[in-house]
Inverse folding.
């Protein structure tokens, strides 16, 4: 049994679940982990928090997508049916400017920190790309008849606002909001351009964050360093340039002009 196929019903369902998930995360955070594991090794509490945080975002999304499309199409709708290895290989290649730059100027995290650090970045990348790109953006763009511009705008604002907690000042808040806003648009465009393959955005998100944290570049998403931001820009431009070249070789474009603002049923289908 599926929910109504009417775009308005799907839009309300997606926006409603999005609001519920974000409210729960803001309301409760991971403070419960310290309550449940007051005397445990901090690593246990942190690992538990990472797991529950992942499930809180992914399970409701999977349930609603299944109700909307049926379990047969769950992996397709979430962009997870594609090959992982190829996408991860491109993600590593695209983020090499960041790895080289950060390894040169940064300070490597201690060995005991690395496992939890990798776990945290894997959780963040998978959770956020499934929630923001495949679900919030993807469902509105593919099935809600939203055009790319309004769908990515809502996704980008919600995504960027979710990172404002890192800011220590108004200026820093504006910078973080702008960077994450651009990142959301970039990830959404790649998601569409790569045939709704979510593994590339997941891989890029993971390795960009991993190199940032592994070499202790900065405590927030904005470093203020020209060199650091240039390395990040090279990653973005490299992925866009390569994608456009591939699309040109295939004789297609990432987006049609009809899909920018509003879509008919055929254009919004899978």
């Amino acid at each position: 049994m599926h929910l109504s196929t009417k775009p308005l019903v799907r839009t309300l369902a997606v926006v409603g679940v999005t609001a519920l998930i974000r409210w729960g995360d803001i309301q409760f955070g991971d403070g419960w982990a310290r309550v449940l594991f007051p005397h445990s090794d901090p690593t246990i509490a942190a690992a538990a928090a990472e797991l529950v945080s992942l499930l809180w975002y992914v399970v409701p999304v999977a349930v609603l997508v299944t109700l909307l499309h049926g379990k047969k199409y769950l992996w397709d709708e979430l962009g997870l049916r594609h090959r992982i290895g190829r996408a991860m290989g491109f993600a590593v290649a695209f983020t090499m400017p960041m790895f080289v730059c950060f390894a040169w100027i940064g300070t490597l995290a201690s060995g005991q920190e690395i496992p939890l650090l990798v776990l945290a970045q894997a959780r963040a990348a998978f959770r956020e790309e499934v929630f923001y790109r495949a679900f919030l953006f993807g469902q509105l763009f593919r099935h809600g008849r939203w055009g790319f511009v309004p769908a990515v705008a809502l996704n980008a604002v919600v995504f960027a606002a979710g990172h404002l907690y890192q800011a220590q000042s108004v200026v820093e808040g504006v910078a973080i909001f702008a960077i994450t806003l651009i990142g959301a648009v970039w990830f959404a465009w790649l998601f569409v351009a790569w045939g709704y393959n979510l593994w590339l955005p997941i891989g890029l998100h993971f390795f960009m964050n991993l190199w940032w944290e592994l070499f202790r570049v900065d405590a927030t998403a904005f470093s203020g360093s020209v060199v650091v931001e240039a390395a990040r820009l090279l990653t973005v431009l490299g992925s866009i340039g390569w994608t456009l070249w591939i699309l040109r070789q295939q004789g297609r474009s990432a987006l049609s002009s009809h899909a920018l603002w509003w879509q008919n049923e055929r254009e919004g289908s899978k």
Q: What stands out?
A: Residues 114-143 form the longest helix (30 residues). Residues 266-270 have pLDDT under 50 and may be disordered. DSSP finds twelve helices and no strands in the chain.
